[in-house]
Amino acid sequence: MRVTGQRASRLVIIGGSDAGTSAALRAREVDPSVEVTVIVSDSFPNYSICGLPFYLSGEVPDWHGLAYRTAEEITGVGVRLRLEHTAKGSTR
Description:
- The structure is a single chain.
- The chain is an alpha/beta fold and about 90 residues long.
- The protein has a single domain, classed as 3-Layer(bba) Sandwich (FAD/NAD(P)-binding domain), CATH 3.50.50.
- It is about 25% helix and about 15% strand.
- The chain is built from 3 helices and 3 strands; from the N terminus they run βαβααβ.
- It has helices spanning about 20-30, 50-55, 70-75; strands spanning about 10-15, 35-40, 80.
- It has a 3-stranded parallel beta sheet.
- The longest helix has 13 residues, at about 20-30.
- The protein is globular and about 45 Å long.
- The two termini are about 20 Å apart.
């Protein structure tokens, strides 16, 4: 990702699970000037759905423990979160 002219690159990631959040954080790491937005359909970015059996079995007592990072940690590195949003299409 590179700055072209006066405008920085923009990256929109649909889905805030492990892969989406990791991609967003890596993009900011590679190029801090890139504008990264993650669209998440619920209020829980970086929530591990794969960890649900551990919560249901009682091994993880609080379901909040299934989130690797808080929204504040993600936005703290410059990633924009759009919680409770869905993507319906693209103009490109």
